[in-house]
Amino acid sequence: MTAAVAKPKAVNNWRENMKFTTSAMALILSATAALAEDKVTIDFAYPYSHLFDVTYEAMMPGFYEAHPNIEVNFRATYESYEDGTNTILREAVSGNLPDVTMQGLNRQQILVEKGIAKSLEPFIAGEADFEKDGYHDAMLSLSTFGDNVHGLPFSVSLPVGYYNMDIIRAGGIEELPQTWDDVIAACKTMKANGIDNPIFWGWNITGNWFMQALLWSQDKAIVENGHVTMDSPEALVALEQMQEIFTECEMQNLEWKAALASFSAGEIGMMFWSTSALGAVERSQGDFELVTGPFPGLDGAPMGLPAGGNAAMLTSTSDDPKVREAAWTWLKYITSGEGAAEVAKTTGYMPPNKAANEIILADFYDKNPNKQTAVDQLPLLRDWLAYPGDNGLAITQVIYDGIERIVTGDATDMKELQQELAEEIADLLPNG
């Protein structure tokens, strides 16, 4: 069409030429208007901009090339998974929900129970090659409730150790620790050798994740039959282990973002955190050798570890089928093989999509051994559990506050603290 406008053939009469040009321009304008009319905009919200901004930036060119008629409006990011869930609950009341939201794996159920997250079964039924695209049963089970898939997992993480090998060697440590007793011994050796800040242990990570890590290390779930097991012998062991780490290692009480920045700057010898931050650490890493290692256990290797990460959920309230279909298209793209592969490339998360791991990332982990650490721990994967009832987020905060009291030294008697936490939690449980 454009070529015809530029060089009409054998037109001798200028009026004919003008008529031709006017008609062509009308067609162009008509086509442009039709394209604009077909444009669909969807709203999307996700957590942790410092981790995932680079991931979505990497995805967008491919998505827009494949789907030029869909515009994705990125809302303000969630500060944490708890913030994400609280935001969605508020937006459900105000009628301002995004079309797609990213929620922590342990925060999906409450959105399903309240009817906010839509079943994806009608969309999945229309996909002829869904399993071939990497969506196998093990992946879908992470977001299946009542025999209905309500989310597509986007990323999976496990806790790991981060080691500044320059500080480790300067501190007189020859082997990476395998247990928390080893970690404490390493702290003391490093202190004796002039290392002021040997450790950060990520107690303040989202969703009481490290508390659950210490419980799963003993093969104990934090929720059993609707009961939060903070009154169990295993929970007492976990609290006592935390206290020993914090006090014996003389750990600085850092806000978690400050801790990540401090480690990246080369100021902390050992950091225990989620593998999710690996990409961000590598991008801001100072001049030191970085090595990751397995998450230490209590007496030996952990018996289990909680799965972290998030899933994409459809929360659109639009009556327009084009908007709902566009939301599904976006949701499927970011969790598909190509989209999910960017998760591994830009973060330390592992993509749960089988096609991403087995095809696109076939030799990726061989070339990125620091990201292989979490993959090696996959046999230890256990559920990251949410607390039952409408007060689940409040229970999360109760446990968070309790652990903070250990860090600050306000709580010194772990049996007493355990009893206090168990009583507060019992009052918040359904029929408590």
UniProtKB/TrEMBL annotation:
Its main location: periplasm. Residues 1-36 form the signal peptide. The keyword Signal applies. Gene3D superfamilies: Periplasmic binding protein-like II. GO terms for cellular component: periplasmic space. The keyword Signal applies. It is found in: Periplasm. It comes from the Bacteria. Keywords: Signal. PANTHER family: ABC TRANSPORTER SUBSTRATE-BINDING PROTEIN, ARABINOSE-BINDING PROTEIN-RELATED. Belongs to the bacterial solute-binding protein 1 family. This is Carbohydrate ABC transporter substrate-binding protein, CUT1 family.
